[in-house]
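For homework, think about our next protein:
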Amino acid sequence: MKHHALPADNRPAIYLTAGECDALSELAMSAEHRHPHSSAMLLAELCRAELCQPGELPEQTVVMNSRIDFIDEGTGARRTVQLVYPRDADIAAGRVSILTPIGAGLIGMTAGYSIRWPDRDGRDRLLRIVSVTPPGEG
């Protein structure tokens, strides 16, 4: 049995607005030839998302341009990143593209949950979200 991907029912629920889900689906499909792996991961996450009205997202849900404070359970390292569209990505400034494995893993998550996600080297990392700051705050 392969262990590189957990079945969807072992992952925490994720929440998105329909508008954001549509925009991200279009982005993932348009980037399939440049980023096939990340696009496929993102599309898989979007397919399992629970869609909400904009005012009905649970508190501290990761949306585009949120700031996410998380701990890598493997190393204990704590990081804060901002989840952005590819054109705004700047890893040195902590702006992580949605079209990266970590970006695809964070979208729709809520604070307090952990997700096991492969890093760029294909190693699984357990990331626990400590807090989420909505866009335009903080």
Observations:
- The chain has a mean pLDDT of 88.
- The helical segments are 18-30, 36-48, 101-106.
- The radius of gyration is 14 Å.
- Strands lie at 15-17, 50-52, 67-72, 78-84, 95-97, 114-118, 124-133.
